[in-house]
Design goal:
about 40% helix, 10 helices, binds 2-phosphoglycolic acid, alpha/beta
Length: about 260
C-alpha cells in the first residue's frame, strides 16, 4: 500500500473522430457518479483535434482531466505541423505525455528533445508525464535498468515541475498483451523512484511513477497493488468508457 494518490492516464494515440465526444462524456459521467475523483486523478489524452471538443463537452465539472500526447519545445514559430504546449493548454489540456516510445521511434525524438518538451510543458503550465522504457533486446542483454535510468536522467527537468509523473513503459509490452513479471515491474519502479529522490530530494518520493504496457481491466489490480507503482498509462484499454472506468475502479481498490 502506498499513500500516493493514483494517477490513471488514457493515451488514445491516433484514434478518435469528433463522434468520440460521446465516449468521453460517458467516461466523465460514470467517473462522476462513482465519485472516482475523490480517490484518483484521471486523465484522457485524446488526439489533439479532440482536446477542445472534449473540453467544451464537459465545461462545468470535469471528472476526467485532459492531456496531449506530445508537444513542440518552442512556444510558436515556423514549425509546420507541430503544436506548442501553449496551444494545447489553450485548447483545454492540463497534462502532456513526453517521450512516448512511439514518438521516439516514429519521430526520432531523443532524450534532449524530451527534456525540451518537458521544459515547454512547465512554461505553459502543463504537467508532464515522461515516458521511459527498454526494448526487448535491452532487457535480454540485462540492460533494462541502465536504459530506463539513462532516459530518465536525460529527460527529467533539473527542477521539479508541478505534478511531474514518470511512466515506465517497456517497449515490448506496448500493444502486445505481454507484461513484465511483478518482480520486474517493482524492480524498475524502485529504481526510478530512487533516481527521483536522488534528483529532487524527499519530494521525489511523492512523484507518481506509472506503469504502462498492456494494462487491461483484468490485470490492472495486480499491477497497481505493486509497491511503488503510482498509477497506469493505458493505451488500447482507455478507448472505451467501460474498460477505462474498470481500470480506474481497480485503482481505487488497489490503493
Ligand atoms: P497499450 O499502450 O496499453 O495499448 O499497451 C500503452 C501506451 O502506449 O501508453
Amino acid at each position: 500500500m502506498t499513500e500516493i494518490r493514483p494517477l490513471i492516464v488514457g493515451n488514445w494515440k491516433m484514434n478518435g473522430l469528433q463522434s468520440a465526444v460521446d465516449e468521453y462524456k460517458k467516461m466523465t459521467m460514470t467517473a462522476a457518479s462513482e465519485n472516482l475523483r475523490d480517490a484518483i486523478d484521471l486523465v484522457i489524452c485524446p488526439p489533439a483535434t479532440l482536446i477542445a471538443p472534449f473540453a467544451t463537452a464537459h465545461a462545468s465539472e470535469r471528472s476526467i482531466a485532459l492531456g496531449a500526447q506530445s508537444c513542440h519545445a518552442a512556444a510558436s514559430g515556423a514549425h509546420t505541423g507541430d503544436l506548442s504546449a501553449e496551444m494545447l493548454a489553450d485548447a483545454g489540456a492540463g497534462w502532456v505525455i513526453a517521450g512516448h516510445s512511439e514518438r521516439r521511434a516514429d519521430h526520432g525524438e531523443c532524450d534532449a528533445d524530451v527534456s525540451a518538451q518537458v521544459a515547454a510543458a512547465a512554461r505553459a503550465g502543463l504537467s508532464p508525464i515522461i515516458c521511459v522504457g527498454e526494448t526487448l533486446e535491452d532487457r535480454d542483454r540485462g540492460q533494462a535498468l541502465d536504459v530506463v535510468l539513462g532516459q530518465l536522467a536525460g529527460s527529467a527537468p533539473a527542477a521539479i515541475v508541478d505534478d511531474l509523473a514518470v511512466a515506465y513503459e517497456p517497449v515490448w509490452a506496448i500493444g502486445t498483451g505481454r507484461t513484465p513479471s511483478s518482480d520486474d515491474i517493482a524492480e524498475v519502479h524502485h529504481a526510478i523512484q530512487a533516481a527521483l529522490i536522488a534528483r529532487y530530494g524527499p519530494e521525489g518520493a511523492a512523484m507518481r511513477v506509472l506503469y504502462g504496457g498492456s494494462v487491461k481491466p483484468n490485470n490492472a489490480a495486480e499491477i497497481l497493488r505493486l509497491e511503488p507503482v503510482g498509477g497506469a498509462l493505458i493505451g488500447g484499454a482507455s478507448l472505451t468508457a467501460e474498460s477505462f472506468i474498470a481500470i480506474a475502479q481497480a485503482a481505487r481498490e488497489a490503493f
